[in-house]
Amino acid sequence: MQVCVKRRSLWLGAVLSLALSSSAAGQQTSQGEEVSPRITRLERWLSAIASHRPGAVDDSVWLINSWNQEQLRLVWVDVSSIVSLVREPDVQLFYVSEPQTRPTGPTRPVSPVATNRSTQVLYTVGELRRLRAIAKTVSPTGKAGPENDILKRGAMLHADIAIMTPVDSRGGASDIRPGPGGLVLFMNDGQQLGLQEVVSHWNMGRRLLDRVRPVDTKNGMKTVPNPAGDEDVRRWYVGGCAYMTRVRNIELSHFTRALELFPNDPDVLFFAASAHEAFAGVRMQAVMRSIKAPRDVSFGVRDEDAELRLAEQLYKHAIERNPNYLEARIRLGRVLGLRGRHKEAVDQLRQGQTATEPVLQFYAHLFLGGELEALGNGAEARQSYERAAALAPTAQSPLLGLSRLAEQAGDRVAARELIARVLNLPPIEPERADPWWVYEVVQARAVDGLLADVRQRISRLPE
Amino acid sequence: MTRRLVAASVAVLMGGAVTPSAQQPTFSAKRESVRVDVLVTDRGKVVTGLGAGDFDVRDNGVSQAIDLVSFQQIPLNVFLALDTSASVSGERLTDLQTAGHALLDRLAQDDRSALLTFSHMVRLREGLTGATARVRQALTGVQPLGDTALVDGAYTAIMLDPLDGGRNLLLVFSDGLDTASWLTPERVLDSAKRSDFVVYGVSSRGPEESKFLEDLTELTGGTTLKIESTRDLSATFLKILDEFRQRYLISYSPTGVPAGGWHRLDVRVKGRRVTVKSRAGYQAGA
Lengths: 463, 286
Description:
heterodimer, A: alpha+beta, 4-stranded mixed sheet, two-stranded antiparallel sheet, elongated, B: alpha/beta, 5-stranded antiparallel sheet, 15 strands, about 30% strand
């Protein structure tokens, strides 16, 4: 499992260094007609996103994957300038606001107009001329809209890089400098394996999509982005949440930003809830208690009780938005049980039992067995465990639950027979499978479909 | 112990031997014995040569007459319950296998052994057998994989109590952090109260991670040994085996105590300032 963050306390210094480096770049290329490597890189990026086939590991993927954090940050700055030029062709001044990296809580909406957190971007005359030419290419009619396609295609390319290339193939990064990079905490079986600075292509995708403004957006100035009003953006975020969940590589910023943009979307709420449910687990809590990391690094993971409380709130919100979200009910039932509210848990799990998908039925029965046992209702607990065992005949978890119930009731013979059944299960996977073992990732089982969907939508966009 | 106590309490109820004044049935004059495994040490050194008259055993605070004290006379049933999750790989696995083999080498001819492993999956690699070579072979073939279901593994091992009157040692090794169990520590500790096993734990992690193992070993009269490195495993395993062999096995027939429920045990050596380690109690009548 991995968690990705950026340091917080060094933020001010990072912004200042951004301004200085931009000015320096401008002076170096102040000859006007001189070919600017910066703009050339932007053009290569634009070419890469145009030729990239979503879902393919093509040359575009490998080219952009080799770029380092600073190069990607400049691309993002310059793409933002292109977007500004398309939406307001007469614009003369360009500003950039680095996305907030707080792991939790609301962040300031990103805007190309000046704010107290924004920094002016300085271009040479020659660079600006070329940027205007590129903007004209993006939108030959001069109307807003096509720039969104650039942003979405770019976000898709960066997501594909994140998904399809190994972490150790990425360009260089620094968690204390601005740009799409951060610290990744590697862990396994509740133990920290390492801490590494890497480029985050999900971060780059989020930066790009923060500029999206659907053409039918009614409110605000035409320079103010509105990514929350775009269905492609929503699906990109949901697909990202599902992917990160499945591979246990959680960028909390991704879930946080998804919640900011789509606070009432049941799927976003559900995935965010399940991330916090996982954070409450012993695997994450143990690593957080013993973590070896720089003192100014915060991973935004709260203690078990706080994470469970957050998960409960988010699941409940998801259910409010979609009362038929049975998977959310089942998981809410488990969270309530972990919080010691067994009767409430049983209520949710009983509703969850009506799910049609066998794997969801299994979880509902398994958890119900545990909750009923906690309430001292051994007979019904046994029935629930037996139903779970029938649904997953090679699962050890319901058999262990049944054995423990029998043992507690004084029927040691039955308890031992049930243990014998556990020990006679197939010795290797996949012949032996227990849905309990994949509970932390099973909610992302539709990830392939979700990613295919967003890739298909974006591949239909004009190049 | 559990089965014996179940039989005892049933016999009492069937025979109607309930004293009129008692709120609960008590053990009659004809009842089966309780066995308690006891380790006596003096400043870390095992104290040997004690007899029945040297011990004071209190069952729920009631002094008991000791029937028998034996020492090193009963063959051992040694259950190895080993963590083979992904975190126990490379040198750790090699060290673990070496330690297991060292322990098996030191078993006496009449001793028996068994091997259970747990990752997220609980597996009995070799059931209780006098053929040590088979256990050794099973241990050699172990491969690390997946998460750690320590609680599930411990429960499964506890339920393998052979009920044959032998002395049962359950040696649990883990990196100490349970990431995959379905059963909860509280429920398994409750089941351990009805087990005959003395559980020794070996943990290679920091103190906060091994709470369950500590509770389990404390409850059953064993000890959890924490090691800095798995290079220390062989010596640790052998120390446990040697210590277990030097424990006293005390038996007594409970008198003056209720037939059911949790019985708190307090074992002391009369007139000597020594350390006595035994199970915290036993669950009767279940």
